[in-house]
Design brief:
alpha/beta; Rossmann fold; 5-stranded parallel beta sheet; 3-stranded antiparallel beta sheet; 9 helices; 53% helix; binds BIS(adenosine)-5'-pentaphosphate; binds magnesium ion; binds zinc ion
Amino acid sequence: MRIVMLGLAGAGKGTQSQILKDELSLSLLSSGDLFRHHQNEGTELGMLAKNYMKNGQLVPDEITINMILDGVNDVGSGGFVLDGFPRTLSQAEALDKALTHDPIDCVVYIRVNEGELLIRLTDRLICRSCGAPYSKRILGPIKDCGKCGGQLYKREDDKPEVVKKRFKAQLPGLHQLVSYYSGQSKLVEVNGDQSVAEVSREALQASSEMMVGNPSK
Ligand code: AP5
Ligand code: MG
Ligand code: ZN
């Protein structure tokens, strides 16, 4: 099964992708995590992406598309969840072109209002080793990653002024993709303003219903 997660910054794409990956035994490809990995490694790609990310801007399509399609190629015929890609119409079209024989099955759009997203992102901590996100508001004071014991840090682009720039940069593409994937009858909208468990339940149910509709998968 091939799933795309859509949603504005902080909607819960990373949180829910990890759950879908585990529940459905899929590979996980996260564009943001890949860029951050490249930055930590000090690669040329990482340095290029850094200037866009710290200002809340999208990294140019050509760079992003090549990076993700390489990852998709590595997964081969197995299923995957894409977190944070595509984010523009050109990225979606490039993905469809690359997946002519094994197309995307389901696109989960997690919808949350911007006020709540701003609160979530300014409250979030991330594991430096595995990238898992944590909410201080939900979990209380936390020091280390519950999954791998890694150190937690605050993302540079989670400052309120950069979060607002991210919303602005992401909204036009998000609207285009919502209509692009509705046109392909692949879009499922999930109310992200519920608990993590409730969002997962809806996302899992929606993706399994999509598979029932496509029994050849
Ligand atoms: P990326 O890392 O993908 O950032 P983003 O889209 O802005 O989204 P986030 O990772 O901030 O949020 P999320 O939806 O994953 O939410 P999370 O699960 O962490 O991209 C970063 C940058 O890379 C971009 O700005 C851009 O520069 C570049 N980039 C990446 N992809 C690109 C592309 N395709 N094209 C061009 N540029 C690209 O949850 C957020 C918080 O809320 C956490 O603390 C979590 O614990 C909490 N939470 C989650 N669910 C709930 C819930 N149901 N209730 C309460 N709290 C919740
Ligand atoms: Mg994320
Ligand atoms: Zn970790």
